Amino acid sequence: MNTPKKIQTGTPFEFGEHLFHFGGEIVELADSTPLLNNFSALHGKMREDGYLFIRGFHPREDAEKAAHWTLQAIAQSGGLKPDTPVEAGIIGETNQTFSFFRQTEVAHATPILDVVDSERTMQFYEEFLGGPVITFDKRWLRCMAQGGHNHFHYDSVYVGRGTQNRYTMWSALTDIDLENGPLVICLGSHRHNRLKSTYGATDMDRDLTEAVFSTDPREMVEKFGFTLATAHFQPGDVIIFGLYMMHSSAPNLSDRYRISIDTRYQLAHEEKDDRFFFRADGSWLGNFYNKGVDYRSIVELRREWGL
After folding, report:
1. Are the C-beta atoms of 275 and 205 separated by less than 8 Å?
2. 183-187 and 98-99 as β-strands: parallel, antiparallel, unpaired?
3. Is 72 left (phi over 0), alpha (psi -120 to 50) or beta?
4. Is the domain 31-268 a CATH 2.60.120.620 member?
5. Maximum Cα interatomic distance, the chain, rounded to a whole number of Å
């Protein structure tokens, strides 16, 4: 495995309308790969840092197969640039972002599950959590076109019912450099008790509240004092974090699809979030199941919380 070179101090990072430079407001993620088989050390790292960044967690070949499968699905929908190789993932003229969340024929196909449900993956979580584990039936398979990105949020707001002992794994399926829309986390946000007890305690479907906390990375740095962290990800690299790690993704500035998948893992005997498991008809409820309702704006909520 050819690990990307360390990101040099002063390297610029364009995040929407904002420009950051490495070494100050944004840093490279700390690599937990050397601790991979030391679960005591991994637990300590998770408590302290709130995340684990593990390079090559999934075999690169498996991640690339999953990406190729996904790109073939995009090609069948006319999303790739004509007369270019599927594996290059060059975005077509429509510049369409694809989220295959409810298309199980894509998101639950063997090449995808060979990554996120592999024996290797499940064994890691059984060791990490200390018992038999389950993973959500919903898989967040995302293919970001140019400009495609997410905004800052805690997962608790979307997927926080039941046990709090639940982990998100964000897996890179393509090469995701600083221009390709990498995941960005806010260091220390898992310890911000004010955020956790207000915004982090909401359930968007129960409380009918907007789920995105902020669209402004500069605010996260200047108002809340967080240092941002990201990396140049390769196929098979992962970040693992709990329900209270503020994160986002930067806009994809490149001409090729950025493909990643989010999966959630917990102990099998602990309470589930039933919105994300199959019902009898093979579907799941998911978020936004309240139709025709108004969601309270995050601006109004933050004013109430004094945030």
Report:
1. yes
2. unpaired
3. alpha
4. yes
5. 54
Q: Which DSSP string corresponds to 176-198?
A: B-TTB--EEEEETGGG-HHHHHT
For the whole model, what pTM was predicted?
A: 0.96
Beta bridge partners of 21: 12
**How much of the chain exceeds pLDDT 90, in percent?**
96
Q: Is 181 exposed, middle or buried (0-12, 13-18, 19+ CB in 10 A)?
A: buried
Rounded Cα gap, residues 189 and 303, in angstroms:
20
For residue range 243-301, list pLDDT tens digits in order. 999 999 999 999 999 999 999 999 999 999 999 999 999 899 999 999 999 999 999 99
Residue 249 identity: S
Q: Which of 182, 99, 109 is nearest to 143 (CA)?
A: 99
Task: Give which of 4, 23, 14, 29 is closest to 247, Cα–Cα.
Answer: 29
User: How do the domains of the chain map onto residue ranges?
Assistant: 31-268
Per residue in 26-71, pLDDT (tens digit) is 999 999 999 999 999 999 999 999 999 999 999 999 999 999 999 9
Contacts of 212 (CB under 8 A, 6+ apart): 151, 152, 153, 298
